Amino acid sequence: MIARVHEPGTSDGWHGLIGPDGEFEPEAGRYHMYIGLFCPFAHRANLMRHLKGLTDIIDLSIVKPYPKGDDKGWPGWQFPKTNDEYPKSTVDKLFGSRYLHEVYFRDDKEYKGRYSVPALWDIKGQKMESAELLRSLQTSFNSILDPSLAAITLYPKQLQSKIDQIAEWMQRDLNSGVYKAGFADTQEAYDKNVIPVFGALNKIEKIIAENGGPYVLGREMTELDIRLYATAIRFDVAYVQHFKCNLGMIRINPKGITPRGPYPDVEDGVETDFSKIKPGGVKMQEVLDYEDSL
Fold first, then answer.
1. What pTM, to 2 d.p., does this model score?
2. Are 163 and 222 within 8 A, CB to CB?
3. How far apart are alpha carbons 204 and 177 in whole angstroms?
């Protein structure tokens, strides 16, 4: 029995799966992805779209980074009126919507949740398919891909238990943790939520060093690297200042993760031997205590 993709009239998200055995068939041109370039979670899905060679199979519409809406998310992300209005953003190529919530309401007029990116729309069925794309895009279209692309996985069987174990606290304390700290509405909540962010960064720094790099688990790229990259690349420029995650910066040794400069082949003199790189970290005792708990 196929599980319900979405519970209408609730805040439940969409949980459809594309594939020969899923609720949706894999077809080129059938699905349309909605993203925002500001969003690390949308960035992760778009990175997977590129890595799996799906750019000619799934097209994009890109919302503007502002305005987002009130504290409940209303009216939510907007599309530009033209493709020239805001750099790299696009009109809604499917429906010409002004707001992303209009796309959600096309499937469920009584939807009570957030109007978030990424989202995947089924053009053929005229309904939302899923927002859980980092993992699903690795296999969803394999049956119609060239074998060389179908073989690409960032969730290899021999590493799945390690990936799952690290991904749990990486998502909780870092990927989502920066938002828990940044959107804290009391000093007490901020103090509680900022510590895990840097405990997780410390722990990841040491895991990379122990595994010899250049990826989290060593020589093989996994979805952990996609999760980490999309947050790390935004950390110093956005999360340190705007989200007040300012106990340290990634680019400054010893206050951040892998203080080795741009890598690889971007800057002369970058150390590529991870055995010679001393892991950085925030030495605040509360951070160290939290790191030990992971």
1. 0.90
2. yes
3. 14
Question: Is the peptide bond between 214 and the residue preceding it cis, with omega within 30 degrees of 0?
Answer: yes
Q: Which are the catalytic amino acids?
A: 39
User: Strand pairing of 119-122 and 31-36?
Assistant: antiparallel
CB of 258 within 8 A of CB of 208? Answer: yes
For tokens 């009216």, name the residue.
75
**Cα(4)–Cα(9) distance, integer angstroms:** 13
pLDDT in tens, 119-130: 999 999 999 987
Helix 187-211 × helix 285-293 angle, to 10°: 60
Residue 18, both tokens: 């594309």
Q: How far is it, in rounded angstroms, from Cα 102 to Cα 135?
A: 26
Residue ranges of the alpha helices (H) in the chain?
40-51, 100-107, 133-136, 147-150, 160-170, 177-182, 187-211, 223-234, 285-293
Cβ atoms of residues 19 and 143 within 8 Å: yes
Q: Which tokens in the block code for residue 262?
A: 């741009």
Segment 247-263, tens digit of pLDDT: 988 876 433 343 334 44
Contact 180, 232 (CB under 8 A): no
Please state, in angstroms and as integers, the Cα–Cα distance from residue 115 to each residue in 72, 99, 104, 168, following that order: 10, 9, 7, 24
